[in-house]
Amino acid sequence: MSAIPPMVPAAAPAMSDAVFALTLALMLLAPMAIAGVALINTGLGRSRSAAQAMLGNLALIAVAAIVFAFIGASFTGSQGLKEVVLHAAGKPWSVLGLGPFLLRGLDAAAPQAQLSVLFQFLAVAMLVLLPWGSGADRWRLAAGCASAAVLAAIVFPLAAQWIWAGGWLAALGANFSVGAGFLDAGGAATVHVIGGLSALAVIWIAGPRRGKFPKEGLSTAMPGHNAIYVLFGCLLALVGWVAWNLAGTIIWVHAPLSALPGTAINTLLSASGALAATFSVTRFRFGKPDASLCANGWLAGLVASSACAAFASPVGSLFVGGVAGVFTPLLVEVLELALSIDDPTGAITVHGAAGLWGLIAAGFFAPQAGQLLAQLIGVAALLGFFFPLIYLLFALLNRFVPFRVDPDGERMGMDLHEIGGGAYPEFVIHRDESYR
Amino acid sequence: MKYAGLLVMPAGFFLTLAALALFPDPGRRVAFVLCGLAVEGMGLAVTVRGHMLSRGASQP
Description:
By secondary structure, chain A is mainly α. Chain A has helices spanning 17-29, 31-44, 50-76, 111-134, 141-163, 172-176, 188-206, 227-253, 260-286, 291-308, 314-338, 347-365, 371-400, 407-412, 414-419, and strands at 83-88, 91-97. In chain A, α3 (50-76) runs antiparallel to α4 and α4 (111-134) packs across α5 (141-163). Chain B has helices at residues 2-22, 26-58. The radius of gyration of chain B is 15 Å and the shape is elongated. Chains A and B meet through α13 of A and α1 and α2 of B.
């Protein structure tokens, strides 16, 4: 594999019509990943909150798309018109894009810029779903929509500009000779790590589900209500993820078409390695493989592939996925049992931790010298800048739009409380023993 | 306590920025960036601890 040249801000090779059409076609398949995550979010919640969870998936995507179109897209700088540049140590630090609001002028932009904006729309739609699943069964729909607006207006545009649209992280190679700049072809950082960190913030602010952590004894098991939704969601996610990684490889890394089959194979191998590892770990620990943890492992493998499928070898991808698959069930257990973090979908582990691991692994596999340092600087920005920013924004938001539903709503279930009807009206919903 | 941890995390981030601005040679840069990540890790640990304490205090 040839070395990746340092990324130069706002300079991308011209795109042929054939490559444009291929990338557009791939991005029409990418929403399958969003559909898969929506199904997983719903299936891992409880039956009495299923309709609210699925409606929330749609509502959050809608809010994020509208807010991103009105405000967020102008700050990403994808159209390359203006940017806020600071100067330090004799180098330019591009920190914010300043494009027109309401997507004005997008139809006249270069094909590559148009595809970049479309990719960002899909990315922000995926991003807002990740904390939604973690707040299942207690996070109010209005608060979820408000948080989606904050993510789409402030957090995601900043991350996208820094990492994808010629910001200071993307320009680390050109300005500071640190590898090829921070590499994140498939959105492991901008979507998954930020989504995982947002999930952690939501869980801390909203608190655990009632009865999850009793005063005495171990935490109460609250299994997801539909394993078929979850596992079918994983299959849908695979289709979308392959398309997502290929489109990202073309748009952000400017890879040649000959690199695409390998990237697709690496995505599948990473997920497969992760599933095999999680299957083995849960089989060893519990005597039988655990379906929901295996789904988490599969998804963790896909998330890790988002960062490094374009750079790793097939064996390397299998290794990256295998490591993600080993730590996923263990970290889920540690977060719940040792740290009292109630994360129904495991987004902190699956998207946050696996995304960080994939980004670091990309530093090992990318051929450019010094790439690992670039990846570590990016990880430092995600943890040291974006996590406190997200937490403070959400804590502020919680003052105006309370995140947590009232105790009566939690007892009734989010379906009846928030939307007035259940997802399964013809079935008897089991009584919750923890409310006796 | 949790807000103290959240304030420590950006301090680690600024260490990594300082590494870029101050040190052209890769060895020192790597050391500073690793220090920055370690500071962020400590901040995260303090935040986690703060949340566990505040949750334990408010538990019925």
